[in-house]
Amino acid sequence: MKKICVIGLGYIGLPTASVFARAGYDVLGVDVNQKVVDSLNEGKVTIEEVDLPELVQEVVAKGKLKASLQPEKSDVFIISVPTPIHADHSANVDYVAEATKGILPYLEKGNVVIVESTIPPRTMDDLVAPIIEEAGFDPYKDIYIAHCPERVLPGRILIELIENTRIVGGITPEAAKKAGDVYRAVITGDVIETEAVTAEMSKLMENTFRDVNIALANELAKISARLGVNAHDVIELANKHPRVNIHLPGPGVGGHCLAVDPYFIIEKAREESPLIAESRRINNSMPHFVIEQIKRLTCELDKPSVAVCGLTYKGNIDDVRESPAIEIAEMLLADERLDVRIHDPHIHEDQVNFPLHSLEEAANGANLLVVLVDHNEFKQFDEAMLLEKMATPVIFDTRNCTKIEDERFTVYRIGDLKHLQAIQ
Prior knowledge:
The strands form 2 sheets. The protein has an 8-stranded mixed sheet with strand order 3-2-1-4-5-6-7-8, with helices on both faces. A 5-stranded parallel sheet has the order 10-9-11-12-13. By secondary structure, the protein is an alpha/beta fold. It contains 15 helices and 13 strands. The chain has 2 domains: 3-189, 3-Layer(aba) Sandwich (Rossmann fold), CATH 3.40.50.720; 195-424, Rossmann fold, CATH 3.40.50. The radius of gyration is 24 Å and the shape is globular.
């Protein structure tokens, strides 16, 4: 293995390409976005990830990583493109299909083709292998085809790409071995070989497990609001049981995994997945639940001013894919009764369709400050500044992350809304 071609230079593809380049391989990164290609060839990145800018600058300077709009002949092709969902929540595998077709002119017998994109069960067997077969190759003998789903945490991607266990599913045992050896050359974690469909399902179930657990916590938050109970206290005490680990409630579930992957299972076995489907419904309902609480908190004001803090789907990243915070912000902006100003220190205005403000601008004259993301910047607010700027020092923390010490603030948390019962 001398040369690797990585198709897709997003949140997973670019770090993956950089890690292989650091290990000494010649890596070509391919993307359809000219800006991404040009930036990478200049040693710059267009996404936010810890230590990635420094690594990219290093490997590009050494000539081990370059970018192009077109693939080249390589020993290994790694496909890491998005798999979004259609309006009906079915998987959109068009990007995977296009990426596979895009490498066909450069394929040779003995090459390894790995799909890291999260995909529905049987995509490798029913989509990827037939495309390669139509090009004249025997996908079970000529080309080693495998699925190796990414399983990393934003903010720790470069660490977890090296240390995490990798599941490698081949459409043949030989393909699993060849693809597994690709990762064994660079990672310290275990590499487990299996069938392609098993690897596909393992990734989906990892994220579905988390989505279902979060749905339980979010349903508990709704029940607690009705009963006047502090859900956070309930969860803390319940989790003292040695075999209980309830997750935390929040404003919804976002990102490219938890908010999407369960649908890939549902579409393949709809009648057999009512629990998964209901969990998706519960988590999708949380932005509306948040809006309801904001309306209750501001119902006595004619033209309330609301400061919204956070737009990404989780803290300390710049990723807004499937973010419930975006949905909440858009619903608030559509309410003509409200004066809404939005702040997120990790987001640029070209990522959203509305203006952004500094924290001071957002807080100025605000009757309510709503925390939608657990950025570090929001865990320790400048309380003196907020007290000076806000019209009324009231905070609605949907992430249970703020640490407010000044007793002049009134803080509501998504799992502790019992004091709202008196507000009609």
